[in-house]
Specification:
single chain; 339 residues; alpha/beta; Aspartate Aminotransferase, domain 2; Aspartate Aminotransferase, domain 1; 2 domains; seven-stranded mixed sheet; 16% strand; binds pyridoxal-5'-phosphate
């Protein structure tokens, strides 16, 4: 491995030596028969941590969200979701393609929430003209932003009042919990289902866990088989998730600190604008002069710093980015702009 600093995403992490050792040593069995002890442990440990009845190890966050939608909704139902939500915008329209489930997107508010008065107004009357509104989906973190516990409680109440299911795309929900300084179940127990990525800030190579009620997870398990997600000796992968849960949750605070350092380093550079003025958990968004962005991108590449090709640009910190790396990135951007 070269010492490339890769800030494109927190999905790029390499499993550590200790994580690889845990994977190599995992007890395994055929998980489609329910006989993989490590998968079973991962599912029960995540259920416990999220204060849910059951868990399901799935191939990806996309699969976790899809199975949740299929478990909550029938053909001809709809779900309310953010216009920029991963579940709606970045998952290939899977719920529509595979479930005949219609999305009803709403713009996110600036803080990553959905306006609950608008949610309530969007719920369709029971009338044969309309799809049946069945589910409310939130995302936390949303572009790095953390939903407040108060808001989540109000959203849960809104869903209950209107007889809607309540799903959280919690790909980075541990980042939200660490930022709030609470156990993750303070967030997750408000929802009927939550999907959590092991392969983002938690630093596992593969997989997500979907948690929820026994009934919903049984449905999701059936759909997982249908979409080809029934894996066999998957304990090799689940072991990485268990290792990550034990060793990589508290350290997310370091990633948040590093993102704040980066935001600080960038904001004083002439020509750079840090959007919203600060870091949000492990993400920083910054815009650069359009006529200089391509050159900046190559300049950083030449210095072994990998950033996304979009301007405004998202920088994501993770467990393979150190404090020194952040300094190197700030200095290199500063040099480019002649600081
Ligand atoms: C990454 C991500 C997902 C999907 O995870 P994959 O494992 O890449 O399929 C879902 N929701 C959010 C908010 C994400 O960032």
């Amino acid at each position: 491995m070269t010492d490339i600093i890769d800030l494109r995403s927190d999905t790029v992490t390499q499993p550590s030596t200790a994580m690889r050792a845990a994977m190599a040593m995992a007890d395994v069995g055929d998980d489609v028969y329910g006989e993989d002890p490590t998968v079973n442990e991962l599912e029960s440990v995540f259920a416990e941590r999220t204060a849910m009845q059951a868990g399901l190890f799935v191939a990806s966050g996309t699969q976790g969200n899809l199975l949740a939608l299929l478990a909550h909704c029938e053909r001809g139902d709809e779900y309310i979701v953010g216009q920029q939500a991963h579940t709606y915008k970045y998952e290939g329209g899977g719920a529509a393609v595979l479930g005949s489930i219609q999305p009803q997107p709403l713009e996110f508010e600036a803080d990553g929430s959905l306006n609950l008065a608008r949610v309530a107004k969007t719920i369709k009357p029971d009338d044969s003209h309309f799809a049946k509104t069945r589910l409310l989906c939130l995302e936390n973190t949303q572009s790095g932003k953390v939903l407040t516990l108060d808001y989540i409680e109000q959203a849960a109440q809104c869903a209950r009042e209107h007889g809607l299911g309540f799903h959280l795309d919690g790909a980075r929900v541990f980042n939200a919990a660490v930022q709030l300084g609470v156990d993750v179940d303070r967030i997750t127990r408000q929802f009927d289902t939550v999907s959590i990525c092991l392969s983002k800030g938690l630093g596992a190579p593969v997989g997500s866990v979907l948690c929820g009620s026994t009934e919903l997870i049984a449905k999701a398990r059936r759909w997982r088989k249908v979409v080809g997600g029934g894996m066999r000796q998957a304990g090799l992968l689940a072991a990485a998730g268990l290792y990550a849960l034990e060793h990589h949750v508290d350290r997310l605070a370091d990633d948040h600190e590093h993102a704040a350092m980066l935001a600080n380093g960038l904001k004083d550079i002439d020509g750079v604008e840090v959007i919203a003025g600060a870091a949000q958990t492990n993400m920083v968004f910054a815009s650069f002069p359009p006529d200089r962005f391509a050159a900046l991108h190559s300049h950083l590449s030449e210095h072994d710093i990998n950033i996304s090709g979009d301007n405004p640009c998202r920088f994501v910190t993770h467990l393979d980015v150190s404090r020194d790396d952040i300094e190197r990135v700030s200095d290199t951007v500063q040099n480019f702009f002649g600081g």
